[in-house]
Each structure stands twice: as structure tokens, then as C-alpha cells.
Amino acid sequence: MSDAPNEHEAPYLRAIPRPTPWPLITAFGCTLVFAGIVTHVLVSVTGAACAIVGLVGWFREVFPHEATEEIPIAQCEIPLPAPVLAPRSTPRHTVRKLVPEEIHPYRSGLVGGLIGAAAMAIVAAAWGIIDAGSIWMPINLLAGVVLPSIGSASEEALKSFNGTWFACSAFLHVSLSLMVGLIFVVALPMMPKRPLIAGGIIAPILWTGVAWASLHVVNPTLEQHISWPWFLASQIAFGCACGGVVARFNMVRLQFGQTIAERLDVEQSKGGSR
Amino acid sequence: MRTMSNEASVVMSATTTMPSRAKVGMASLIFMESAFFAAFLVTYLYYIGKSPDGPQPLDCLELGPVLFNSACLIASSVTVVFAVKSLARGAVGAFRLWMVVTILLGLEFLVGTGIEWRGLIEGKGLTLQSNAFGTTYYALVGFHAFHVAIGLLMLFGMLLLSLCGCINPKRDHMRVDIATWYWHFVDVVWIFVFTLVYIIGKVPQGGSL
Amino acid sequence: MTTTPAHSDPARSDPESSGGASTERLTFWEEATRWTLSVDHKKLGLMYIAAGLVFFLIGGVEAAFMRLQLMKADAGIIDPETFNQLFTMHGTTMVFLVGMPILLGFGNYLIPLMVGARDMAFPRLNAFGFWLFIFGGILLYFSYIGSQGLYGAPSAPDVGWFAYAPLTSRTFSRGNSTDYWILGILVSGFGSMTTAINFIATILCMRCPGMKLMRMPMIAWMMLVVAGLVLVAIPVLTAAQAMLLLDRSLGAHFFDPETQGSAVLWQHLFWFFGHPEVYILILPAFGFVSEILPVFSRKAIFGYSLMVAATVGIGFIALGVWAHHMFVIGMGPVLDSFFAAATFLISVPTGIKIFNWIGTMWGGRLRFATPMLFVTGFIAMFVIGGLTGIMLATVPMDWQLSDSYFVVGHFHYVLFGGTVFGIFGAIFYWFPKATGRMLDDKLGKWTFWLLFIGFTLTFMPMHVSGVLGMPRRVYTYEADRGFELWNMISTIGVPVQMAGILVFLWNVVRSLRKGEIAGNDPWDAWTLEWATTSPPPEWNFDRVPTVTSARPLWDLKNPEDPDAHYE
Questions:
Q1: Which of C359, C420, C348 is CA-nearest to residue C386?
Q2: pTM (2 decimals)?
Q3: Does the beta-carbon distance from B171 to A64 stay under 8 Å?
């Protein structure tokens, strides 16, 4: 804006503080005062004298006016060229990169979460039928996250339908899936390479590891009955389904000042999809 | 130190308001000195009640004289404000008068402390070496007195400058004001020292080492 | 909208003819006088750094002698008294005469340039502080000649850099070598305090138009916090040393347990200074990293405001962790837990910084010039040092490891791998600004790798020998304890490091005369010091610049996409 010289500044007047020995002499005197403690009192006396002389000289340097050294005007009156700011090697300037530049619309996360939830439910149901002997088993076990009473339920009860447990489990499953779907939307563009591998394979494996390590605290019932290969399979099913769905959506450019409505992809015209 | 004489200060005042560097510098100095005294105060607190042998604070410390000294020191903080106010008005004569009063009050404090110490050393046999009480007492009060002396030198210097006509009220009253901050600081420290030494510290000394 | 830069004229951009006001060549004595009497923050800063480097060499030689003695079991190269003096002088030198002055020197050099000021707030006070540091250092080393030790023989201080009572009492420390330690540190401490006052006044009062606090370069923030810490911590050390001096010269009873004094009180006072001191030594290095990393990653620093908050947070928490140096004195479970918790807490803001640096590098176009190498090495080494710090903050672990070589390994990872690497990175980064010539990059890389390998060889095995039980501050050890291999490796690292330092010195000497001309802005950086000539004129900026964002030079170079747009 203001390439023109600031009018408050006299452009070529230079004044710098005048070089002075007084601070040096004062410092030397102070040191001698202390050195006298370990040598001889005369050293301290000399030091004190030195320090006082230095302080007086110093004071006269700043009072009543700061002593300055004027830089000859001639040296400053060379016409000033444009500032020399060119870098030595010219790096290729790219436009500013905001990380992430583009994200999938949040909507896609909600859809992906739901579809992932379905995929996971199918795998879990398959486990229930093939391995555990009842389709209700995985559903009831999931409800155990919030209903501690399931922990003391009998094997029989776990394998049969229970309305409360089912409602609880369904709610948990859907809400968790939606949440993870949203996290996918936000996190996928920030993964360095091949987001689908990160979201579909690596994240489920890591998550399974975390669950394996912590499940006995969170949900002891589930831990007694769980089959880890199936667990991993269901997670991967979720990850692939959800990631696949999210990736199918067009990305929207992130722009500063975008409202939530725009980010939700409601007004796509302004957000500008690719 | 005075404000910068060249154009930078002009630009600053024109565009942004920066705090005065003299004020910030003095405030930092006072902050630093506070940390120094905090160490001595904490040490004194630590050693309260830990001098089973030797002279005891209950026997040694008398409130009467020290109350008078304290009153003088606190009064000097008030008179120095009058001095600065007079200078800001341009009344150099009143400034000199109030400065003299301030310096005399400060001197009274120092002399009073000296008399108290002589009483303690000769009358009660309390020295730096007698016990933990003596050590911490003389160190704390002594360092405070040392700072009072420095403050007095500063006040005396300002008085001298004004007597030789070197102080220009318009130009210098802010500097004088900031210099007197130090005197107020010395005063505030004394309030802490006094409370700790003469009120909190006057307890029977147990053998609770 | 954009910066009003300092204009430079072609006559001065040529380093041959610059060097302040005059263009004609000065004789040696004129030049020396000019430097000695100078109150210019740049000259003082460079003198700080140069003096610090000289002391660095002295302290390094002391360390090398110690390693030589410890290379083999029962070696008889150095007698125990000399060994005590060596580790005392090494520690004292490295902390007070190397770390602080070099970092304060960088602060001196950089702060006014970075905040767009013509000089420090109090230029003469600045010179005063510098000379106090110099004379304090000389006074400390004068003890080798002037002090009267045992039997009147000259003797350097031998009480360890933290000078624990009652080792410092007249009974155990005869002569006046300990007094030299007290006075030398006292005097240079006064210097640090005046410099800190100057930093605060400069940063708060001398910023150029538009330089809001939240637009300041990270170094300015770090130095502000460091100055605050100096103002709280050093006076406490001064007070403690004054007490010790009273004990020793006038027979007071502050720290002598035999006469109702308390040795523990000395530890509390010393470490109340000592732990903030550690942050005084590391925070400026954090600042160097925060300036160098973005430039060589070609990205703005990640999480600027969080970084500022973390710095201030560290500043406050640093004042409440000191007693973690004292777990073994038996403070009781309450205090132990408090200080352990506070120490864990301080790792949170520190961790934030580490993650922010990684976030800055993440996805950037990294350019591994020498400064960047040192800074990257800094992060890795500092993380190791920080993690062993957390181990030591765990009280039971500390009981086991306190005063062992594990602790020595830990703090060298922080102070050498951290601070010294940061300092070298800063030297390579700002050398072109200060001299107008580049340091040689190839030699720089040699320096880095030699130092890095030598450093790891020396200090990594110390963790092992420490866990095996080797105590600190012993002048020798027995052969069958299992320490020999690790000590041998440690000593082998020393010549490697020395080679690195020699390459560095050669690099400096050569580059001063023959180095590539740097130009004003060799790294394509964004802070104000690169807007003026290299070296800058004594008045820094021909015109005081006006800034509109945290990266004024970015705005200048990219007028179509200025930072100001995003603030």
C-alpha cells in the first residue's frame, strides 16, 4: 500500500548512538569492586572509583540529550533503488497451499458412514451365523458397550433377541458409523498418499490393534466372545465401503470464508466442484 | 534515559502507541529486584523459629523505634509524590523543597536502622554470626538498607541536578517520575520486611530443626 | 497492504565496502577501538557470540581431558583434585559463559532487526551488560592464577557447577576458589539481567509500525519469555550467592548444617534458578528452529498462536518444577508428587512445539542446507533428551538414576543436541546476514555429520553406563564393573566432535575472506532482517519498515497473495 515514503519520517536523516567507553569503564569498576573481596580492599576501592567515574560519564552521555553520531548526509543521499530482495536461486513460486486444499463434501461422509455401517453389519451377521451360532450374538455384544448388565447375561440370553438391546445396539452402530464417516471426510485428504489404503486398510488394522489392547476395559463381555479375524474383517469392510463411497463424491475446494452450508455442499455453485 | 531523538520515535507515535521504554525498563528492574528480595524473604521465613540458641527475636526486636523509622520511610514516599507533582506543574522551588524533605526522611530511616543495629550488637549481642536469626535478620534488613541508600543517591543526584539548573520541568518531569518509582519500590519492600521480621517473626524459637 | 522495506543502495550491498558508516578501510587499531567502544547491538551481539565460542573451546577442552581420564578403568592421567576442577569449570563455563552469552548474543543481534528497530532500547546498558559478562568470565578463570587453594596453591573452583552446601563452606572449601566461582558468576549474572531488561524494553517498545505482538517472529517471543525467566531466576541465584558469600567471608549461617543452617535451602534456591536456567538455554534454540524450519520447508510455521501460547506456558511452568532435581534428598511424597506432576505437565507445551515443527515440515518442499540439517538434528536429539527427562521426572526412576551418568547423558542430549545444535544452525543461517558471505555448505555438512556422529558416540553410551550404576563426578572407576566398553565408546566420540569443530572454525576463517557473496536474502526468507543489506548498516534500516503480517517479506515478494489477507 504505502510504497511512498512515510511522510512522518525524514527519509535521509541518520543518527546512531555515539560509541562510548563509559559503560565499559563502569563494568570494569563493578567487577573490580567484587574482585576486591578475594584480593585486596584497595582493588575494591579502585573499582568503586572507576565505577563512579564511569557512571557519571555515562549519565552525561544520555542527559540532557542522548549523544548521537550523525551519519554524513552524503552517504544516505544516493537515490534509493527498489529493494534488493531477489533470492539467490529462484525457487519456483507456487501459490499458497492450504492443507487440505480440497475435501469431500461432508454429506459424503454421512452417506459413506451409512453404507459402511451396512457392510459391517453384513460381516458381523455372517460371523453370528457361521461362527457364533446366532445372528443376535454380535448385536447383543455391541450393546454391551453401554449396558453393563449384559456382562452378567447368560450365553442363552446373548443368543436370543432382546428389544432393548437391539435398539441400543442399532443406535450405537448408526451413530458411531456416521461419526467415523465424518472423520473420514476430514482426515482422508490429509493422508499423504493413497487415501483409500489409509482409510480402508491401515486405519482398520490400527483400530483393531487399539481395540485388542483396550477391550477388556471397555467391554469385557465382548472380549470373552470376540473373534479377532472376524472383527478385523468387519472393520475393513466398513473402511473400504465408507472410503469407497466418500471417494466417489466430487471434492470441493476449501475456501476461507465459506459457510457451513457451502461446505455441506448445499450451494455447490459457489463452492465450485471439480 | 530519554526518548529516542531521531525519526523512529516520530513514526512510532504517529502510527502505533508503544509503551515508553523508560517505564518498561524501570518496571523490569523493579520486577528483578522483587525476585531478589523474594529469595531473602523466603529464606527469612524458612528460618523463623529455628534458632534455639543465642539471642531471640522476642528479646531483641522492639517495635517502638522501628515504627517511627517505618513511618518516616512511608511518609517519604508521599513527599516524593508531592515533589514530582510540583515539577510537573513547573514549580521547581517546591520540587527542591519536597526533595529535601524526602531525602531527610530517607536519611532518618537509615540512621534509625543504624542506631537499632548498634543497640542489637552492643546491647543484645546479636550479630550475623550468632545464630540463624541473626544471619537472616542482618542479611534481609541490610540488603534493604543498601537499596534505600541507592535510592537516596538517586534522589540526591536529582536534587543536585535541579540545584544546578539542569532539570527542565517540561522536558524532564516524566524521567524524574520514573526514577522515583524505585523509591516507592524500596518502600513497598520495607512493608514486607517489616511485617515478616517484626510481626510474623516474633515467635518463640523452638528446637524444631 | 505490503511492506515498506528498507531500501538499500548498491554501494552498501557490496560487503567489501560496507561495515557501517565509513567506506574507507580502517587500520586494525581503529577497527578494534570502534568495536570496543561500540554500543551497536549488532557489534555487541557478534562479540557475545565470538566470546561465547572462545569459552566453548575452553570448556570443550576441559571435557576432553575428563573423557581422556575416563577412557579406561583406573587411569592415572588426571588426579582427583584436577578432575573436580575440570568438571566444575566445564559445567560453569558451558552454562554461564557459553550458552547464555551466545544465546543472548543472538538475541542482541536479531531482536532489533526482526522487530524493525534501529537499535536496542538502551544501547549503552547493552554494552555494559556485555562487558560485565566478559569481566565476570575473566574473573572466574583468573582463579587458576589468583586463587589460594589448599596449601596456598592456585586452585580453580572444585565444588561442581551447582556448588552444593556444605561442600562450599569454609570447612570443606579452603582458600578462596569458591569465592571466585561466586563472584565470577555474580558479575556475569548482573550482565545477563541488564540484557534481559533491555530485551523486554526493546520487544515491547521498539517495534516498527504494524509489528503487533502476534506478528513478531517466534524468536522475539522466545526471547521475551527468556528475558522474563532471567529476571525471575538470576536474582534468586544472586541472592543465594550473596548468602553464600556472607557465610564464607563474614561467618553467617545460611547453609552450614553444623550451625543451624540448611544445606537443603541452598538446593532449593539454586534449583529455583537452575531449572528456569535450563529453559533460558533451550527456548532461544526453540526460536532458531521456529525461524529456520519454515524457511527451509517453504511453509509458514504451523500453529503460530499455539506456539506462542506454548512458549508462555513453558515460561510459567518452568518456575514450578525446580525440585525435580532434588527427589533424592527426601522431600516426602507430597512434594515429590507435586514436582513430578509439574514436570510431566511441562512436557505438554514442549510436545506441542515438537508437533508444530513436524507439522511445519509435513508436506513442505524441504531443502536440506546446513542450517536445516542442524535444526532437524536438533528436533531428533531434543526429543530423546526430553523423553529421558520424563523418565527422570518419575520419582522411583530418579531415585535409581539420580547422579548417575544417565543424567549426564540426558542433559547433554538437551543442551548439546538441543541448544548447541540450535546455535550451529543459527550460525550457519545468519552468518551471511552478519558478514555478507555464505559459510561453505559442503564443509557445513561435514561439521554436522561429524558433530552428530561424535555426539551420539559420546553421549548415547552414557545412558547405558548410568543405568549400570556409574556415578557422576567420579574421577575413575574400577575395572570389573562393566563400565569400560561404554566409557571407551564415549571417549572415542570426542575426537570426532573435535574434528567437526575444527572443520567449522576453518569454514568460518575461510568464508570470512573467500566465501560466496550472500546478497541480502540468500535463503529467500520472510522476516525483516533479510530486508536490509548484508551486513546491515549501523542504523539497520534506511527507512523504518511498516509491516502488515507475520511474514513481511512474503507479502513483499508475493503481492498477489499476501499473508495479511489471511490474518
A1: C348
A2: 0.82
A3: yes
